[in-house]
Amino acid sequence: MEFQGSKDRNLTMLVDFYEITMANGYLEQGIGDRIAVFDMFFRKIPDGGGFALFAGLEQLIDYLNNLSFTHDDIEYLRSRKIFCDEFLDYLANFKFECDVWSVQEGTPVFPNEPIVIVRGPIIQAQLIETMTLLTINHQSLVTTKANRIVRAAQGRGISEFGSRRAQSYDAAILGARAAYIGGCTGTACVMSDRLYGVPAVGTMAHSWVQMFDSEYDAFKKYAEIYPENCIVLVDTYNVIKSGVPNAIKMFNEVLLPMGYRPKGIRIDSGDIAYLSKKARVMLDEAGFSDVEICASNSLDEYLIRDLLIQDAKVDSFGVGENLITSKSDPVFGGVYKLAAIQNDDGSYTPKIKISETIEKITNPHFKTIYRFYNKSNGQAIADCVTLFDEVIDDNKPYTIFDPVATWKKKTLTNFTIRKLLIPIFEKGKLVYECPALEDIRSYCEEQVSLLWDEVKRFEFPHRYYVDLSDKLWKIKNEMLSKYNFG
Amino acid sequence: MEFQGSKDRNLTMLVDFYEITMANGYLEQGIGDRIAVFDMFFRKIPDGGGFALFAGLEQLIDYLNNLSFTHDDIEYLRSRKIFCDEFLDYLANFKFECDVWSVQEGTPVFPNEPIVIVRGPIIQAQLIETMTLLTINHQSLVTTKANRIVRAAQGRGISEFGSRRAQSYDAAILGARAAYIGGCTGTACVMSDRLYGVPAVGTMAHSWVQMFDSEYDAFKKYAEIYPENCIVLVDTYNVIKSGVPNAIKMFNEVLLPMGYRPKGIRIDSGDIAYLSKKARVMLDEAGFSDVEICASNSLDEYLIRDLLIQDAKVDSFGVGENLITSKSDPVFGGVYKLAAIQNDDGSYTPKIKISETIEKITNPHFKTIYRFYNKSNGQAIADCVTLFDEVIDDNKPYTIFDPVATWKKKTLTNFTIRKLLIPIFEKGKLVYECPALEDIRSYCEEQVSLLWDEVKRFEFPHRYYVDLSDKLWKIKNEMLSKYNFG
């Protein structure tokens, strides 16, 4: 049987139960086809970073394109005995009819701005809540984390080695895809190469070394089979006393006579800073200054930064569990909130979710985002969330202001603007072509390069401006003042 | 198209690339059919807990039963141009022939004891490394975390609500299964109900409340459709001034006249301790002392414990991201290491992995585990890891000792013993029948009840004894002394 990539998988029933009870409820109340607008947005950047990276759109599209309820799904729902026949018939004949806008994969995104907008019959827009969040949350989390690690390595390659510690199968497969978008050079995960074209790499585990009578023999046997790009694992017994000397011996006695330059050694445990420096000297003195040292051992962006400060002689890193789970902050907290309902005359009634937890108050209305760039150097200056049909004239100065500390204003001149949300589905029809993975990865790298260094630092990054247009701010504040917080 | 549950999914290509290079290498070196023994074990209990819970065996079995390489898989591998034809033919005709032993799902497990053992041709045993780890690591992580949260709630129900923040699709679906084994009462995830029978529950989101002209109207409309077990979400605008009064009004004006008792209210934001106590008084005074209060808002075991210390009036909890990702410690660090190679005469040569990182040194040899229980009260006393064929006589005193601080000894009398590892596959044939999910859940609850309270506390739990038999300890120490650590 062929593996089912997410392209072919029907994940329609991956919904929260309440989405189905609500959908049935809307239909029973006769408002199932009211046009609603939902925003996906997030409130907090993982790891206290200055920006997040958006990913997962291709899989969201696959899901929406495959939305359909099987006969068994319908019978399962019928067996719950709380859904009406009309609703079950609706699901059995389900045809996706929503409009979807999204930012592109690889785009830097910020809290409290809509990164996906869904407009359509409430019964449909509600049903896709869980999968929209799940898909975007996961990949955005891993892309964001991978990019932190990639930046810490200052140009050295990062391979994603975390499948075995991923939170189940898709987390490994799609996590490797997300990590690649964030700048990793490859993955250990073969399935991710098969399905998405993420380059799969890998050489040997300790078991290979243990299977032979001696470490030298294990290296020799490996090199005979894989003389090209030969990398050996040197920490099975003792890196300095055994692993590196045996590697050098094998390079001289096996690879060079075969006509191949060795590629590298890998250290997977112990004091990487100390061991890599010792190994570097040994390799250099043996005439192998071109042989690379790869390190792996529960690394993350902070350990890599620290290794480089210590002048560790590492040319590339393999990063596992801390990347694939974003261990230090493993949740991307995207939410999906009702923002507006369309009236019969085509106008919108904005909706807001109030909360005693101030951060949980939403931005109401059907919206869009403009990103402002400095016309001289291309750098991103600020995002402005506006009503959907607001137009910003990039020939005139534009004043942005902080939505909370409203006296903090800045008038922008000499800028270019770009609408970040682009149409993906129009009335259920896909109108967007997903770029190739390599192109997404390049776009991501370019967009990150347009952010100020102050936004990119790990400690206390500058908070990038995400402001509301004057019109939107007024609407929100009028709505807030209607509720009594006393 | 029908959704593919893990039962039907072919995940054969979910391997690390180095497993394939090694497998091809073993074959090319003529040692592909050497019988090797691999252990899966872990080194650290998540969250500094006193025990972990083993889960995922059913999915591991599904994977092993579906192991097969498709024509496209073979062609993909051929295109890498480093694998020999004989190896590709071997994969094309792959037939799983290993023996597998495992502890049962729901069993408390401890560091440095084998929880899965694979014995078979090295070429095969090596290939299943990633999936064995990935499958068991993920579900054991979530079951362990769920059980902590369940225990913190002291009998109050915990619903798993985390799908939207899970690390991709399987993490949501199988995470809900794992959480149920750990003691949760249900999940929001419909797919997990469909595929595994985890009870799916859920009522309404804020969007339901926002869709109607007033909060009261939203509650009324909901109750008309779902009068049974009716739970309303009271924090869309203001819990005390709006949500609870509207709920009480609806109970009186809609549910009671229809002949139904209301079931509950849910609070999803704000100060749960304060709000639940206020709401409790309001409900009691209105004659609804039987109406339950459910709380959800980024909860975990510590927050729940703290809420109960504050005497919060919460009857059940919905727990999302902190459970489904095991946020505070999102990695279950299971590893898969070569432990022995079988010789032609049937004996075993033990194998060890040395490391400058002491914790990374493995326990060599083909092994098994005995768990000792106090015969009088049934409580678990210790585990002893022995050679595979060692027999412990439960009629004689047995002395266990700490494998590092060897002077720490304890002679056990009045005990019963149980072998934890049971046969799952024999020469590739499944010989184990997976229990029903409900039975796994009950078994788990029972086994946890047999642990001392000191092992179960969150802070500085007692370290449960996992000792090596005298024979095994001697073999390990002889091997260690052969290597020079100077």
Write the layout of secondary structure elements.
Two copies of one chain form a homodimer.
Chain A: H1 17-28, E1 35-41, E2 52-53, H2 57-65, H3 71-79, H4 85-92, E3 99-102, E4 108-109, E5 116-121, H5 122-127, H6 129-152, E6 157-160, H7 169-181, E7 186-187, H8 190-196, H9 206-211, H10 215-225, E8 231-233, H11 239-258, E9 264-267, H12 272-285, E10 292-296, H13 301-309, E11 316-319, H14 321-324, E12 335-342, E13 348-350, E14 367-374, E15 380-387, E16 398-401, E17 409-412, E18 415-419, E19 422-426, E20 429-430, H15 437-449, H16 453-456, E21 465-468, H17 470-482
Parallel strand pairs in A: 6-7, 6-11, 8-9, 9-10, 10-11, 15-21
Antiparallel strand pairs in A: 1-5, 1-12, 2-4, 3-5, 3-19, 12-13, 14-15, 14-18, 16-17, 19-20
Family (chains A, B): Belongs to the NAPRTase family.
Domain Nicotinate phosphoribosyltransferase N-terminal (chains A, B): 13-137
Catalytic activity (chains A, B): 5-phospho-alpha-D-ribose 1-diphosphate + nicotinate + ATP + H2O = nicotinate beta-D-ribonucleotide + ADP + phosphate + diphosphate
How is this structure best described in words?
The structure is a homodimer of 486-residue chains. Chain A is 37% helix and 19% strand. By secondary structure, chain A is an alpha/beta fold. Chain A folds into two domains: 17-142 and 330-482, nicotinate phosphoribosyltransferase; 144-324, Aldolase class I (TIM Barrel), CATH 3.20.20.70. In chain A, the strands form five sheets. Chain A has a seven-stranded antiparallel sheet. In chain A, strands 7-6-11-10-9-8 form a six-stranded parallel sheet. A four-stranded mixed sheet of chain A has the order 18-14-15-21. In chain A, helix 11 (239-258) links the parallel strand 8 (231-233) and strand 9 (264-267). In chain A, helix 3 (71-79) runs antiparallel to helix 4 (85-92), helix 6 packs parallel to helix 13 and helix 11 (239-258) runs parallel beside helix 12. Chain A starts with 16 loop residues before the first helix and ends with a helix. At the A-B interface, helix 1, helix 3, helix 6, helix 7 and helix 8 of A face helix 1, helix 3, helix 6, helix 7 and helix 8 of B. Chains A, B: Residues 13-137 form the Nicotinate phosphoribosyltransferase N-terminal domain. Chains A, B: Its EC number is 6.3.4.21. Chains A, B: Pathway: Cofactor biosynthesis; NAD(+) biosynthesis; nicotinate D-ribonucleotide from nicotinate: step 1/1.
